Amino acid sequence: MSQPTAAExxxxxPAPYRRMENMHILFWLxxxxxxxxxxxxxxxxxxxxxxxxxLLITWRTRDIKAELAHNLAIVFxxxxxxxxxxSEFVGFDTVRVWGSLTGKHLALIPFLTGLGILxxxxxxxxxxETRGEQPLRCSKDR
Length: 142
Known about the structure:
Layout: H1 15-36, H2 40-60, H3 65-90, E1 96-98, E2 101-102, H4 108-131
Helix pairs in contact: 1-2, 1-3, 2-3, 3-4
């Protein structure tokens, strides 16, 4: 029997990792609810567990290129989103920092960094994997 191709390989998530991802969603929602309702203590407090869990998920999936790219993009997305929220809470979101760019526009730096990581993955890394230049590395349940 032949080995499955990268597209056919099954990606499974160990139960403890899945629970961590579910907690991550809960913290992220609480952060955004705090932002929406202008509950500054809740919004700011939830930045830390949301970002920490995103970093842990990224670290644990680092051996799978697709997961690494997407989870890094999420880390940068949460960073940009959190910076934007804090800029509104503190009141420097509308302060001009350079030309017509305001404090909240600085969130574009991590947003674009995440986008750049995904563009690299889809334009460079994934085509390499598809051609078989680099096999998909799947780590066993740790």
